[in-house]
Amino acid sequence: MIGALVHLGRNLRAGFVLAREGALSLVDPTALPPSGRVLLRLARVVERPGANREGRLAAALTRLGPSYVKFGQFLATRPDLIGMAAARDLESLQDRMAPFPQDEAIRVIEAELGRPVRELFAVFGEPVAAASIAQVHRATIRTPEGEREVAVKVVRPGVRGRFNRDLQAMRFAARTAERLVPDTRRLRLVEVVETLARSVTMEMDLRLEAAAMSEFAENTKEDADFRVPTLEWDLTSRGVLTSEWIDGIKLNRSEAIDAAGLDRVALSRTVIQSFLRHAIRDGFFHADMHPGNLFVDAGGRLVAVDFGIAGRLGMKERRFLAEILIGFIRRDYRRVAQVHFEAGYVPPHHSVDDFAQAIRAIGEPIHQRRADEISMARVLTLLFEVTALFDMRTRTELVMLQKTMVVVEGVARGLDPHLDMWSTSEPVVRAWIERNLGPIGRVEDAGRGLWTLAGVIADLPEMAQRGERLLEKLERIADRGVGVAPEAIERAGDAATRRGVLTELAIWIIALSLLYTALFG
């Protein structure tokens, strides 16, 4: 009871801040029941006069603290839940917090790595960047080749407990909303909070981020125009991550890039093509590619940092994405429609021709514009809006991909405002399709199928033995019958008396339970 009151108090505070900053104006009252519309009007009474109409939700979540900032960043990837207006509002949300003191960072490092900082690092500097979960320090380590500069990421002290408290309050709010307002169940609020909890838990374990960096490095080791900082595994733990310090230029510093004599047009193409290679070729992409996480080094190579948020695509989703993009490039709208049906994303009771017509309404207008006016991210956004009309259930991984593509496209156009997204993307997409959907890919698919079949064949003897044992049990049951204890019959009779119309169902449940016990008990 006390816990519920604490959660209620935290949620009331959060609701007051949201109302005060004007964030509740983003809620569509027509989608609420009458009681909800009344509560919304009452809540908006406390709205602060002159509240900023843009970024109001982002401002409210920033006031509420790190957990809510992270929650807002997560919701920005789910316009299917909160609507496009709220998602756009959250795109401005910046995960920037005041740094915690240097001595606290030192205590965390020494507790995690088990040695004094002076032994671990030749130099350990002040924090250079701070976010809701961790902050980064510049340091120097000693190696046999000499001293080398590194970036040391340190988890905030107490952050796990604070996030856990806020997540418990969010869980309470989600369960209460689904219980009191049944219409909210379609939003799967409890599932959303649990997804956030898993994401944050993984992000607070820096060993998992290090593993993501290692996987990215392995995937891209042959790429001449992209690289990942080198990890220092001996100086990495759950709360500390140490990697190579990148002396590069952030991609939003166009003047500095020009001054260094680097080709911005070529770099913009690298940004797009690298992202598509990661997503389509590798099925593993950096899902937080804002300019602060992207650098260009002295050799003109793109370098990414901060791998705390990453997305994965299975082979089915990669094929889906590749064929969607190539279909729009070639104006083959029927093929785009068929891909949706083949993937099982659109229910089969809809018409492929009707769906192709809806997709044409997206594709044709873009071919009436100049290449530098066409936004691939905008096309995918419109595509998801249209597919909702055909009962396509939102795929979380595809929504994350689309939101990341919005950011990536913005970074690339900042370098080259006249970037032709389609001609830049086409070589990467075409190469993947030719490799994976052509003769070589079909042979490999056949090989994987044969390997799976061989595994099934190898399991056949055991499956046959299990089947034989099951048949023997069924024969014994047929000979002896299924005994029902008197107590069970009495309980069934009492239930029948109390429930009336559920009599037959109760008896069947008891009988089936006893049958299951006889077979598998």
TrEMBL record:
Signal peptide: none annotated. Keywords: ATP-binding, Cell inner membrane, Cell membrane, Kinase, Membrane, Nucleotide-binding, Transferase, Transmembrane, Transmembrane helix, Ubiquinone biosynthesis. It holds the Pfam family ABC1. GO terms for biological process: ubiquinone biosynthetic process. The keyword rRNA-binding does not apply. Residues 122-521 form the Protein kinase domain. GO terms for molecular function: ATP binding; protein kinase activity. PROSITE patterns: PROTEIN_KINASE_DOM. It comes from the Bacteria. The keyword Membrane applies. Pathway: Cofactor biosynthesis; ubiquinone biosynthesis [regulation]. Belongs to the protein kinase superfamily. ADCK protein kinase family. PANTHER family: CHAPERONE-ACTIVITY OF BC1 COMPLEX CABC1 -RELATED, PROTEIN ACTIVITY OF BC1 COMPLEX KINASE 7, CHLOROPLASTIC. This is 2-polyprenylphenol 6-hydroxylase. It comes from Salinarimonas soli. The lineage of its organism: Bacteria, Pseudomonadati, Pseudomonadota, Alphaproteobacteria, Hyphomicrobiales. The gene is ubiB.
